[in-house]
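Sanity check record (used in CI):
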Amino acid sequence: MYCQHCDRKHEPDAVFCSQCGKRLAIAERANETSLEEQARQQLNTGMTQSGAAIEADVSVRTKAGRKPVMIGLIPVFIFILTATAVCSYFLYETKRNEQVNQWHEAAKQDALLGKYEEALHRLKEASKLRPKYASLAADTVVVEEAIAFQHSIDDISSRMSRNELTDAEPLLNQLKQQLRGREEQAFTVIREQLSELIVRMTVGQIERDLDSLQTVEALATKLNQVKGLSGKEALSLQQQIEAKIVSISYKQAELQMKKKSFSDALATVQLGMNYAAENEQLATLYGRIQKEKQKFEQDEQKRIENAMQKAAEEDLINQTAAVEVLHVGTRRDENGDFHIDGQLKNAATRPIYSVSVEYTVHDSQGKKIESGKVDATPKYIEAGETFNFTAVVHGVEDEHAKVVIDHATWYLD
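Expected output for Zinc-ribbon domain-containing protein:
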């Protein structure tokens, strides 16, 4: 007999299939029992067989299936344990990686802010967890270099604070050379501090030499140098240089103005104002010089006119009245000779020479007795000097005869 569901073969009296557990079809029996008895027997037999079949089936299933089920669960347990271990290890390593990344990023931020010791500490902690991370090793080297640079900067700054510029300058130049071409972000603060040191060095050197600079041109060179710098110290030094330019320009212009060199004085003030354009002191002086210059030019014009007039007058005197008669004395000797002695003066403003004097002798009645011409001595006479002439007229009988100087001729030198 076969199961109509799974085709498993069974005994003829089987009611349930031992394979699939479903009820089997009941065959027609050819005995002579009544239908009711047959049904009753069939029911009793079915119930008995059914229970037996169920027990048999459970027994078979239990005996046949227990061992394979247990064996099948072992890989599941191993898988679960392995997965749990792998997951735990993965989570552990992930957490370590996150911690390393946090320390690494924090170290980068510290380095950008110039907190190099803190950055180095974080990098070392991260390297303990991940000693083979190349990026950590590389950044550690950079931060260690930054720390070394920071020590150099601190040393240079300390020397400059003690005004040891001569010792600090070569160290600063060396640091500049070491940082040349280094563009790592970790050196941002270092580069900023280096720029500040350069400004401080330049300002310190100029301040050191400021007292020795006594010309506007020399100060202007330093001023242009300082204007290219930034910071409070540079601004303060710029103001000091401008103030000294103003002082030197003012004093020099005043001296030039006293010497009546007004154009030079204006140029001096203008030069100072080129570097201190808004200085009221120089602007006021410039206006005063202009007024003084204008007044001087007006007075000079008057002086020129007066000088021209005086020169004309002097020229007239030189040409027409260069010889002034100071004294003329006469005497007559026993022989009847009439002696004439005259003293003259050079009234010209220039030397004269070859002076000739013309004279006339009159008697007491005013009648002309004699006239003549005589050369004065010395021959060359400076302006303002006196000179003389002498003459003798023979045969003058009138004891009261007089002499008159008629004319004089001369040459101007």
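Residues 27-65 have pLDDT under 50 and may be disordered. If this sentence no longer matches the regenerated tokens, the check is flagged for review.
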